């Protein structure tokens, strides 16, 4: 990122100021519990970060084809649902951080498995076998009738059992095996000072 600071005109002219504005707007959206505003600002801020990375000389490119498909998936999902149900942000890397309200998580996990999961007969060496903290979402894809599998760890959510609108499914970008696993978390109670056991 030092190269970005030194070479990106976008960073020097705009990014420093927009980060300050976005921080205030994000805090306001959180305070007001306004998910729509939070989602829009988080995604715009993430996009600006990666625009600055591209403006760096030579460019810093962190997003992958799968990253871009996830971004398009989020926008297609929100457009098809007629409201904001999910948002993304990316740090300086290819991994998406998705935000959703709790009431939508089971639905989103189901669709992530359909669009980015692996065929259930396939396994990945990235995930240790026998790890009890790993859960699976198994979904039969109504388009190709294959069972798709998505590994996740963290908070468990109920299995989504409602039918999926075929028009929605057709509108969503796919990349089979694009997501190795999901880590499911929730907003906590904020930072805390812990007693140190260090001498």
UniProtKB/TrEMBL annotation:
Listed GO biological process terms: isopentenyl diphosphate biosynthetic process, mevalonate pathway
This protein's GO CC annotations: cytosol
Domain Mvd1 C-terminal residues, every copy: 1-194
Top-level taxon: Eukaryota
InterPro entries reported for this sequence: GHMP_kinase_C_sf, Mvd1_C
GO molecular function, one term: diphosphomevalonate decarboxylase activity
One Pfam family named in its UniProt record: MDD_C
Name assigned to this protein: Diphosphomevalonate decarboxylase
Species this protein is from: Clonorchis sinensis (Chinese liver fluke)
